[in-house]
Structures are given as C-alpha cells and as structure tokens.
Amino acid sequence: MIQNISMKQFIKKIVLCILMSSFALFSQADALRKQSDKIPEYKVIKVIDGGTVSGKAVFTSEKVPKDEMLTVTSNREFCGEKIAARKYIINKDKGIKNVVVYLADISSGKDIPAQPVIVDNVKCAFEPHVSVGFIGKGNMAVNHNSDPMFHNIHAYITGRLAYNLGLPEKGKEIKRKFYKPGLMSVTCNAHPWMLSYVQIFHHPYAAVTNEKGAYSIPDIPAGTYEVRAWHEGFGDISLGKETITPGKTSNVIAAFK
Ligand SMILES: [Cu+2]
C-alpha cells in the first residue's frame, strides 16, 4: 500500500516535470518567434529633392546558367507539358531579371506605396514570379485565380507558414496583409512546380529588375545607405555603401557570378 502511494507520487512528479519543461520550451519558442516578428522602426518624412539609386543586375561569369523547364504532372490539358521555372532569366547582355535591389538600413523616408501586390495564377504559374511588398498603409498580397481550376496559396515568410488557403475557381481572390518583413515564398499544393517570391520590406526602398536587368529606387533622403541585392538562385549580396546627395542619381551595379 505504502509502496503504491509513493509510486503514484513519483509518477505525478515525473508528469509535472515533463509539463513544466515543455511549457518552458514553448514559451522560449514563442519569445523567439515574437522577436523575429518585430518590425524595425520606420519614420515617414517629407522627402524633397531626394536622390536615386539605379543601375543594372548583371551576370559577370562566363557560363550563363540556363533556366529549367519543369514537367507538368497534373491538369496537362490546360497547363501544357512543360513550364519554365523562370529562375534564371538572363538576356543577351547578361542583364538579370527578377533581382530585388534594396536599401538595407534606411529608417526614415517617403511613405509606403498604397497599391497592393497582386500574385495571380495564370496558366498554372504565379504571375509575377518575383515582387516586392511593403508593410503598412494597407499594403497586402492579393492572391487571384485567373485559371478555370483549383489552385491553392500556401505561403511562408522566412520559412514559417503565413497562410494556406484555396482558390477553388476562376475569379477567386484572397487578400492578406503583410505582417512581418522577410522573404515570402508562395507555393500551390495542387501543382508542385508553381512558385513565386515576394520580398517584404518595412520601408518602400526596394525594386525588382526588369527583363534588361534594370532597376530604379527614387526619392531617397540624403545620407549613406547599404545597397543589397537578392536573387533566388544567386542569393543575397551587399553592393556596398552608397552616399545619396539631393537630386542626384547614383549608378549601382548588382554583379552576380
Ligand atoms: Cu496551382
């Protein structure tokens, strides 16, 4: 009988210990999550006669990487048999499309753009493949379906699930506000080849390069800032510090090799 009671107490203590340590682990994970969700401060000021950073993203090595053609595994009658990955869109002058060029350390400047980022589903691919989003001013991702079939939006921000929702038919739309900065990847569970990226910023100083590899970031208040560039295949690189003077344009080349 006595043995039985002490055994019961022992088990009770073990269970309590497990509960307490898992609670501690959960609160630690929660604290880390809250820390990573913290939005850096940004102050909106009137920018008069701001400077511009513009230039080109170029591939500087000899062997230009080829874009991949991905095999379509479902809805082939509508999507076709192959779809371009659009990872490496590099023109004859080695200009790279879909590079995000941004200021890394700006804490005040012009207002956040009010227009949302539209990520459409067109012919079984996300359109655009790469875009930039901004936190604040009602800025959000509008996920639209232009296809006559089911797509779903499975989005992650810096590796953590942001949302996972269905777009069952043509014309359907899901709107979600950006809630933290970082790289948002968008996938579709129905079509595993589908992929799109939205780089989310807490300030408006970011641009995506066009098919020539060109970009322009205007209305920057005078000061010295780090310019960085990201590409889904080449990674994120620093382009060095750039001093912005009122009304002047600084040419910054984003060289990837
Ligand atoms: Cu899909």
Q: What is the level 1 CATH name of the largest domain?
A: Mainly Beta
Tell me the β content: 35-45%
CATH topology type of the largest domain: Immunoglobulin-like
Shape from CA axes? globular
Structural class assignment:
alpha/beta
The strand order across the widest sheet is 9-15-14-11-12
Q: Any guess at the CATH architecture of the largest domain?
A: Sandwich
Instruction: List low-pLDDT spans.
Output: 21-29
Individual helix count:
2
Write the H/E string, N to C.
Answer: HEEEHEEEEEEEEEEEEEEEEEE
Q: How many angstroms separate the termini? A: 76 Å
The CATH superfamily name of the largest domain is: Carboxypeptidase-like, regulatory domain
Radius of gyration: 23 Å
Small-molecule binders? copper (II) ion
* Average pLDDT for all residues: 89
Give an account of the 3D structure.
By secondary structure, the chain is of the alpha/beta class. The protein folds into 2 domains: 45-109 and 204-257, Immunoglobulin-like (Sandwich); 111-189, Immunoglobulin-like, CATH 2.60.40. The chain has 2 helices and 21 strands. The protein has helices at 2-36, 76-79, and strands at residues 43-44, 51-59, 69-71, 82-84, 100-103, 108-109, 117-122, 125-127, 130-134, 140-145, 151-157, 160-167, 173-177, 182-187, 195-201, 206-208, 214-220, 223-231, 235-244, 249-251, 254-256. The longest helix is centred in the N-terminal third of the chain and has 35 residues, at 2-36. The protein is globular, with a radius of gyration of 23 Å. The protein binds copper (II) ion.
